Amino acid sequence: MTVGLGTGSTAAYAITALGERVRSGGLRITALSTSQASEELARRSGIRTASWDAVRRFDISIDGADEIDGRFRMIKGGGAALLREKIVAAASVDEVIVVDPSKIKGELGAHPLPLVVAPFGWQVTRDRLEQAFGCAAAVRAAVNNQPLVTDDGLHVLDLQFDGALPDPDTLEARLKAIPGVLEVGLFIGLCQRLVVGYDDGRVKEFVPGDDILTATVPS
Ligand code: A5P
Predict the structure, then answer these.
(1) DSSP 189-218
(2) Model confidence at 215, in pLDDT bands (50, 70, 90)?
(3) Nearest CA, atom 1, ligand 1
(4) Of the listed 20, 39, 40, 85, which one is catalytic?
(5) 50: helix, strand or coil
(6) pLDDT (tens digit per residue) in 97-147
(7) What is the DSSP string of 64-121?
(8) Quick check: CB of 81 below 6 Å from ligand 1?
(9) Closest Cα partner for 137 from 165, 158, 161?
């Protein structure tokens, strides 16, 4: 199988577990990662990795999320990998999202919405976003206090709205109308399966249409 590897602390568990199964000889996969960090972890774990020259679609991808609502709409990009994550998710037959129950929300927006923007003129992109949407747009900083540079050489703006995200279904297109906005951390229609892991070790799986807001406690 071809496997897309997500980014973040949850995806790292999945990559490590896949590596154990590859090394024990039971699993033969070719993987492509959504970040340099995941790529390095995959290689260290013994997973064979490929480039886009060899892979065009993924049988399955595994990733985390920052928030997911009852309609399986997600905010992603807390790990700054949203551009690659969306490209991989859109090329996946089966995008599996793994979360703990704290990520499941009635409404999206408590977590800031990450946007990938061009470094050129990011300041004016930020100003236009704040004026057009009435939100606060903060450039994400690296440890040196300079704007973070993603694996693709881009910057990240974190948008905080006053309350829930306004009309998530149309928001991505409206945000992308601002020059300099390259990708939006709103993932809609891109989760085919949701795996919820609970504190007691139990795991429950959901598909779109399931009521995850009231059915998240395992029985
Ligand atoms: C990475 O850019 C993100 O989309 C992550 O998938 C998301 O931030 C969840 O990360 P954790 O699994 O670390 O919570």
Answers:
(1) S--SEEEEE-TTS-EEEE-BTB-TTTS-S-
(2) low
(3) 79
(4) 85
(5) coil
(6) 999 999 999 999 999 999 999 999 999 999 999 999 999 999 999 999 999
(7) --SEE-TT--EE--TTS-HHHHHHHHHTBSSEEEEE-GGGB-SSS-SS-EEEEE-STT
(8) yes
(9) 158
So what's the pLDDT on residue 107?
A: 98
Give distance in angstroms: CA of 130 to centre of ligand 1: 25
- What is the arrangement of strands in the sheet containing 67-68, beginning at the earlier edge strand? 67-68, 74-75, 186-187
Give the pTM: 0.96
Q: Is 95 an annotated catalytic residue?
A: no
Which tokens belong to 92?
Answer: 């996946």
- Answer yes or no: is the C-beta of 7 below 6 A from any ligand 1 atom: yes
Q: Pull the structure tokens for residue 28.
A: 């033969």
- Whether 65 shows a pLDDT value over 90: the answer reads yes
Tokens read off for 76: 């992603």
State pLDDT tens for residues 162-194: 999 999 999 999 999 999 999 999 999 999 999
